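W.,

You were right to be curious about this one. When I first looked at the sequence I had no strong expectations either way, so I just let the prediction run and decided to look at it fresh. Below is the sequence, 151 residues in total, followed by the output.
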Amino acid sequence: MRKINEIIVHCSATPKGANFTVEDIDSWHRKPPFNFRCIGYHYVIYLDGTIHLGRPIEEEGAHCKEGGHNKHSIGVCYIGGVRKEDGRTPEDTRTPEQKEAMKVLLQLLKAAFPEAKIYGHRDFAKKDCPSFDAKKEYEYISNMDFKKALP
């Protein structure tokens, strides 16, 4: 298993309320300008809050090329992230279901990888992704000490 020390939150940069799937993102990531062999994210959270597997976590992701972060990270993406009106302006479009699912998934990942800290893609790239301050919002999860809770 890879050593994981970062969990990086992303948005799909799709308009508010528009449904997209792991299969859609996989298709986008296989084409230019990306040309990945498969979806770059490890998890994708749909509008209804369901969590879907992307790339296996055993494999290095293709979601944060800046600074070599893919090597030791897990990429989590929620569907949305831009305004419906223009499809470009960053906006935190997470549904209540996505917010709850994100919180649960991040806690599970933190328990599995106790050394990991949570960041937004924007903490490593000149981007607005994930359209909110994930590092600040999930700092309490980053600081949880699951090692003390384990036997």
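Here's what jumped out at me. Strands lie at 6-11, 14-15, 43-45, 51-53, 73-78, 81-82, 117-120. And, maybe more interesting for your project: The radius of gyration is 15 Å.

Coffee later to discuss?

I.
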